[in-house]
TrEMBL record:
It comes from Oceanobacillus zhaokaii. GO terms for cellular component: plasma membrane. Pfam families: MFS_1 (PF07690). Residues 12-397 form the Major facilitator superfamily (MFS) profile domain. It comes from the Bacteria. It is a multi-pass membrane protein. Keywords: Membrane, Transmembrane, Transmembrane helix, Transport. This is MFS transporter. The chain crosses the membrane at residues 6-25, 37-59, 79-105, 139-159, 165-185, 214-232, 252-271, 283-300, 306-328, 340-365, 371-392. InterPro entries: MFS, MFS_dom, MFS_Na/Anion_cotransporter, MFS_trans_sf. One of its GO terms (molecular function) is transmembrane transporter activity. It is found in: Cell membrane. The keyword Acetylation does not apply.
Length: 405
């Protein structure tokens, strides 16, 4: 059979990147939208944190089912269902005005978001040459920065007028994403040699649960995402409280920060291969230590200049770690069950994402509106993630033996 044309793969990757960027726009935009929402609904920091956390309950619950379905029925169907669910939730979020309904809708949105990373990773595993997989995965994950830019420019501009307009605008972009998936995704998943993949059930699902790396990466991403989502959730509120910034000023800083998210994501693949000679673990450990120190210094300084510098260093290092951990499965895990494996691994991310705003919101409330203690706690969580990364077994998947019995 003939190999799929490169230009089709380019459009396929662009389609995945758009969907990924919009999910990150959604995740980032809530941290700015929460400012007018707090004022409109008279929310406390704890209530605001709970609203942001509801998203991650749905995300966590649906992680493994969406990964398993990506392996069984194909990633295109899962991605269409997922983004369709997010689209409906986004439209309704712009209409309701009570805390309970907003929480329910964010929960449903999280259910939809769960299918995006698992199905996207499955597409990469099925359609991209092995040597290119880590770079393509890094490229896709770099759209977290693009999503941030969209959230803190287009999203924040609309939020500044009326926060509801931002969600209606996001819904329109989701429609575009669905159309692109219909057009550019292949009807049948194929491997890089152009041969149709056999059913994933030729490798039993038990292989996933016997692989220690799956659960080590799960734990590493859990503690890392406590940092990432705690940081993103409360960064706008910290600048408002500590430096008196309005939404416009916050948007400028966070837009620049979002660009660095993409830089950190894209540079990770290059640095691992060229500078660290394929030693993912060493790169991840150095980056996570830099991330933790930057977060702690950020919390302790009263200088706006130093806080911005530390924020930028944090963003570069934390996103480099995240992309490295999320790309590792392409080297360490069997392609046939990568959807299910990524689902479990990413569940660590979602649990961390759920815990982050809730824990940090509680700390902020307990310490009388002091954000610094919460950010120091995030730095400690980053160091814990580093200790977990030490446990990763880096033996390539091709040389590892599995007991299928």
């Amino acid at each position: 059979m003939s190999q799929e044309k490169p230009k089709n793969n380019v459009m396929l990757i662009i389609s995945i990147m758009l969907g990924y960027a919009l999910t990150y726009m959604d995740k980032n935009m809530i941290s700015t939208a929460i400012i007018p929402l707090k004022a409109e609904l008279s929310l406390t920091a704890s209530q605001s944190g709970l609203l942001m956390s509801m998203f991650f309950i749905g995300y966590t619950v649906m992680q493994f089912p969406s990964g398993w379905l990506s392996d069984k029925i194909g990633p295109k169907k899962v991605l269409l269902i997922s983004i369709g669910t997010i689209l409906i939730a986004t439209i309704f979020f712009g209409f309701v005005s009570t805390l309970v309904l907003l929480m329910v809708i964010r929960l449903i949105s999280g259910l939809g978001h769960a299918g995006v990373p698992t199905s996207s990773t499955k597409v990469v595993a099925n359609n991209i040459q092995p040597k290119q997989k880590m770079f393509v995965q890094s490229l896709i994950l770099s759209t977290s920065g693009i999503g941030g830019i969209l959230a803190f420019t287009l999203g924040s501009s609309l939020i500044n007028i009326n926060w509801r307009y931002a969600y209606f605008g996001l819904a329109i972009l989701y429609v575009v994403s669905i159309i692109m998936i219909f057009i550019f995704f292949p009807k049948e998943s194929k491997n890089p040699n152009g041969e149709q993949l056999k059913k994933a059930d030729k490798v039993p699902i038990s292989v996933v649960f016997k692989d220690k790396n799956v659960f080590i990466l799960f734990a590493a991403l859990l503690f890392l995402n406590i940092v990432l989502y705690g940081y993103l959730s409360w960064l706008p509120s910290l600048y408002e409280a500590n430096f008196g910034f309005g939404i416009k000023e916050i948007s400028i800083i966070l837009s620049t920060n979002a660009i660095l998210m993409s830089v950190g994501a894209l540079s990770s693949s290059f640095l691992v291969n060229k500078v660290f000679k394929g030693n993912d673990k060493r790169f991840a450990l150095i980056s996570i230590i830099v991330c933790a120190l930057a977060c702690i210094v950020f919390a302790m300084t009263n200088s706006l200049t130093i806080s911005i510098i530390m924020m930028f260093i944090f963003t570069l290092s934390s996103n480099a770690v995240f992309v490295t951990l999320f790309s590792w499965p392409h080297k360490l895990i069997r392609q046939e069950v990568i959807g299910s494996s990524i689902a479990i691994i990413n569940m660590g991310s979602t649990i961390g994402g759920f815990l982050a705003p809730t824990i940090t919101g509680y700390l902020i409330t307990v310490f009388g509106g002091n954000y610094n203690v919460a950010f120091i706690a995030m730095g400690i969580s980053a160091l814990v993630s580093g200790f977990v990364i030490l446990l990763v077994r880096t033996k390539p998947v091709t040389t590892r033996k599995y007991n299928y019995n």
